[in-house]
Amino acid sequence: MSTSLRYRRVLLKLSGEGLMGDKEFGLCTETVNRIADEIKTVHDMGVQICLVIGGGNIFRGISAAASTIERTSADYMGMLATVMNALAMQSALEIKGVETRVQSAIPMDTVCEPFIRRRAERHLEKNRVVIFAAGTGNPFFTTDTAAALRASEMRCDALLKGTQVDGVYSADPKKDPTAKRYNRLSYQDVLACDLRVMDTSAIALARDNDLPILVFSLHNPGAFSRVVNGEGTFTIVDKGVE
Prior knowledge:
Elements lengths: L8 E6 L14 H16 L3 E6 L7 H5 L5 H25 L4 E5 L8 E2 L2 H9 L3 E5 L9 H11 L4 E6 L4 E2 L11 E2 L1 E3 H7 L6 H9 L4 E5 L5 H6 L6 E4 L4
Parallel strand pairs: 1-2, 1-6, 2-5, 3-4, 3-5, 6-10, 9-11
Antiparallel strand pairs: 7-8, 10-11
Helix pairs in contact: 1-3, 5-7
């Protein structure tokens, strides 16, 4: 393992929408393979990697619950969508020679392992990528919260969130050209200003466990490897200057 690495064990949070590419829903094979290449590059650097992937490209629970499906059922459907995305990413990584394990918070032994923290730690120690699927296993919690929870449980050095933009802005930069970009924020800044980096429970969990959150764009080739070294363009959310 390189001694120059800023972060040696990280959790990468990806949105399901980030796997769609130019499609309106589902998976874009080219996009999945490109992201798998980015993950392989960082894995080959000696970084231990966990993943949490959302399910919004297949099913979005809140919007469905607001229409015809009861919220709890909709959230469970969303969790199953995250398992589908996890299996797709596992396949893409293993084709590239990266050993990968999927662990689900909802037991489904036929397709993946159940979530067992110590087993997951052992996988990481053996240089396997671990993908945590099915969120927390409970309705009313997002995959953002699941990412903060798993990153804390696995004692990760940082939680990296790959998004559609290169950091945190005061507003959606695609809609508001005057939106201000931040290089660094405290957890309290994010909560007080309602910046929607991640949901409030995820931010609070990261704050309580002193887990830095780095927000960057996975659309920029090589961005993941640069951020792991503390380089490139990203916004860091941490406890701030004391």
